C-alpha cells in the first residue's frame, strides 16, 4: 500500500473541507496594495452552515493507488470499517498559516452516538481514538481538523448524544427545570444549541476573543432516529440566525453504472428531498463522483434539487489531495460562498500558491522509502490514521515517496508458522524488505510476541526502529530478555504475576473503569542528555510537550540496570520517575517514546521522531541532526521544533441564561463575531 501525497485513507472524503481552505484565503486578503483586511469585521454575525449530507451507495475512492499491491498490503476495510454510510465524513480542512492570524476557525463536531467520548470504542469499529491537549478522547475526524487547521481543540469540541443527554439529566436531577416535563424538544435541542454557542466562544489557540468562524460537523445518517435531535436543533438555529447568516452545503454521492457509464442523480435527489423534509434546505451541492459531472447532469440536479447550477460543485477523483483546492477554485466554489454570505466585498481570488507548490512536489516524488507497520489492528488502516499521516508528513519533508507495508504482528509469531505458514512467510518477507520498522501503540496481549520479534530484528540488524507507547514498552521487554538475559521480563498487562515486571501499571489508573482513567493529554518531557538523537531532532531544546494515552509504563526500579546494559533513558517527566524516551546509542536509529507524537504532526510541521525514522530509513539522518547541512538531494529539510504550548482548559458548564426555543427570540450578538458551522449527515437511498 502506498501512502504519499494521497493515500487510500484520503479517498474517504477529503472533499468539501477544502472549501474552507479556499474561504480562508479569500477572507484574509483584499485586492490591490492594501494588504490584509480585518476579516472579523467583514464577517461579523455571519454563520456559514455547511451541511455535509451524504448519499448512499458504493464506496468511491479518491485518487488511484495504481496496481501492483504486494502481498499483505491490502486491508479488508469493508469487513472492519465503520458501518457503511455511502460517502464517509470529510476529513481535510487546511489553514493558511499566515492568514489564520486574521481568520480563526473553531470546530465542534456532533456525533449521534450515546458514548460520551470515543475513548472506549473499538479501533476496528470506529478507527483510532484521537487525544487532545486537555486529555479529551475524540473521534479521528477531529484530529483531521487539528492537522489541517493547525489549531488546538478541546474535549468540548466533541459533542455526542451521550454528553447532551447526560447534561440534561444532570440538570433535571438538580431541579434546574423547576419540575417541568423534560423532553427532547425543547430541552435537548436547546442544550445542543447552547453547547454549540458556548464552545464557539472559546478563544482559538489562546488568541483574544472568540473565533471568527465556527465549523460544526454533524455526523450520522439522514432518517436515523439518533440524529433527529441534532437536525431539529440546527433547523431551529438556522431560523434564529436568519438568511444570509446560514449556508448549508450538501455533499452527496453521484455513482456511475459501470455497464453504461451513466452518472446517476437519484441518490442525490432522494438525499436532498429527505433533508428538506427535515427542515433544512441546501444552498450548495457538492457531488462526489469518479469524473467531473456532465453539464446535463448538473442541470438535472439543479431542476430537481432547487439549487442553481453555479452552486453545484464536482468533487471528483484526483491524483493527490493537494489538488482539491485548485479544483474548487476552477469551479468558482469560493465565489458561490462569498455570494451566499454577502462577502463579495472581499478579495475574489484565493491564495493557493502554497497548495500548488505542495501538489506539484507530491506529484514528483519518486524515490521510495518503505516502512513496515507492525500492529494489531492492521485490518483497518483508520486504526492508525494519525500515525500514517505523521509518516506522510515526514516523508514529504524528506522528499521521499512513502510506501507502508502492513504487517500483522500475530503473523510473525511461531504459532502462525504452524497454523498459516504462508501468512507467516509473507509477514516476515515484508518486515525484512522494509527500510524502517514502526511499532505503534495498542492494548491487550494479542500479537505482543510478534511485536517483540520485530523489535529484536530491528535491534540486531541495525534497521531504523520507532516504538510508540506500547511499542516502546515492547522494545524494553525485548532488550531485557535478549541483552540482559531476564527471560521472565514482561509487562503486568500481559502477565500480572511475572517475576520480572519491567513494565507496570500506573498508580493513578483504574482497572475497573476504562473510559478517561489513563494518563491522558499533553505532558512535558525533559531531556536528560543533550547529545542524543531525539533532542537534536527536536532542535536541541530542554523539554518537549507531547500527548499521552496509556495505563502502563516502564518500572523505574529497573532503569539503572537497563542503563548499565546500554539502553539510555534520555527523556523523563519532571519527577524523573516516568520514562518517556529511550534510545540505543549503539544503533543507527532505535528510538522509543511513551507519548504519541503522531497527534501533533502537521503537514508543514512534521513530528521530529517521525522525521528521524524516515530520514534514517533513507540515509538522511545526519542531515537532520546537523541544522547547517543540506539534505542529500540538495534540498534543505527544515528544522522541526516542538509544537507544544499552553494547554487551554475547557469550560466546565454551560453559561446561565434563558433557553432558546427557535421561535425567533434571542440576541444575535450572543453568537461569535462570525461562525462557520458544518454538519455532516448521510442519506441511505
Question: How would you characterize this protein structure?
Answer:
The protein has 685 residues and is of the alpha/beta class. It contains 22 helices and 27 strands. It has a nine-stranded mixed sheet with strand order 16-15-17-18-26-25-24-21-22, with helices on both faces. Strands 1-27-9 form a three-stranded parallel sheet. Strands 6-3-8 form a three-stranded parallel sheet. Helix 1 packs across helix 11 (324-330). It is globular. Residues 1-23, 25-103 and 628-685 have low confidence and may be disordered. GO terms for molecular function: ATP binding; CTP synthase activity; identical protein binding. One of its GO terms (biological process) is 'de novo' CTP biosynthetic process. It catalyses: UTP + L-glutamine + ATP + H2O = CTP + L-glutamate + ADP + phosphate + 2 H(+). Residues 110-343 form the CTP synthase N-terminal domain. Residues 77-90 have a biased composition (Basic residues).
The main pleated sheet reads as: 9 strands, mixed
| Classification by helices and strands | alpha/beta
- Coarse morphology: globular
**Helix share of residues?**
25-40%
Strand ordering within the main sheet: 16-15-17-18-26-25-24-21-22
Beta strand count = 27
By DSSP (H or I, 4+ residues per run), the number of helices equals 22
Q: For the residues shown, what is the average pLDDT?
A: 76
Rg, Å, rounded: 25 Å
Query: Distance between the terminal alpha carbons, to the nearest Å?
Result: 32 Å
Estimate what percentage of residues fall within beta strands: 15-25%
User: Are there runs of 5+ residues with pLDDT below 50, and where?
Assistant: 1-23, 25-103, 628-685
